[in-house]
Amino acid sequence: VVQFASFGFDASASELVMAFGSGAALHLPADELRQASNKLSDYLRSEAITHATLPPALLQGSQKLEGLESQVLILAGELPKAELIRSLAPASIINAYGPTEATVCAATWSCPDGFDGAIVPIGRPIANTRVYLLDDHG
């Protein structure tokens, strides 16, 4: 598991639990690797990272993360574009939503093989969580 989020950000908690809760190694990349997707891609491959939580903005418009077909990529922090989701295939993609509402995550969506939608869903509530969708009138 790569520790991409800084320790002062709530997402770091899920990265820590994901690694240590499963007995995996937690990798701490240097700051310059976190800023450039091409350097990050090389790091993920060289360290045999299998799970990463990344912001879509880091990956949007950049070269494809090549050689990471067995990777689980959790996209969080903002809405990913459908084109980005398709460009990351065949990696397993999870859209994580809801840090503002529930501190790390409130809902997740796992991208199905062959996804061809125009909009990436926020998904379903995680365990012991309810999601309320409200209109302008509450």
* Overall strand count: 5
Number of helices: 6
The CATH architecture can be named as: 3-Layer(aba) Sandwich
Kindly report how far apart the N and C termini lie.
39 Å
Any low-confidence stretches, pLDDT <50, length ≥5?
A: none
Q: How helix-rich are the residues, as a percent range? A: 25-40%
Q: What's the assembly state of these chains?
A: single chain
User: Main sheet?
Assistant: 5 strands, mixed
Structural class: alpha/beta
Explain how this protein is built.
By secondary structure, this protein is an alpha/beta fold. It has a single domain, classed as 3-Layer(aba) Sandwich (Rossmann fold), CATH 3.40.50. Helix content is 28%, strand content 14%. The protein has 6 helices and 5 strands; from the N terminus they run αααβαβαβαββ. Strands 1-2-3-4-5 form a 5-stranded mixed sheet. The longest helix is centred in the N-terminal third of the chain and has 10 residues. The model has no long low-confidence stretch (mean pLDDT 87).
Task: Identify the notable features of this structure and list them briefly.
single chain, five-stranded mixed beta sheet, alpha/beta, globular, 14% strand, 138 residues, Rossmann fold, 5 strands, 6 helices
What is the secondary structure topology, with strand pairs?
Elements: H1 11-20, H2 31-35, H3 37-46, E1 51-54, H4 56-59, E2 72-75, H5 82-87, E3 92-97, H6 99-102, E4 107-110, E5 124-125
Parallel strand pairs: 1-2, 2-3
Antiparallel strand pairs: 3-4, 4-5
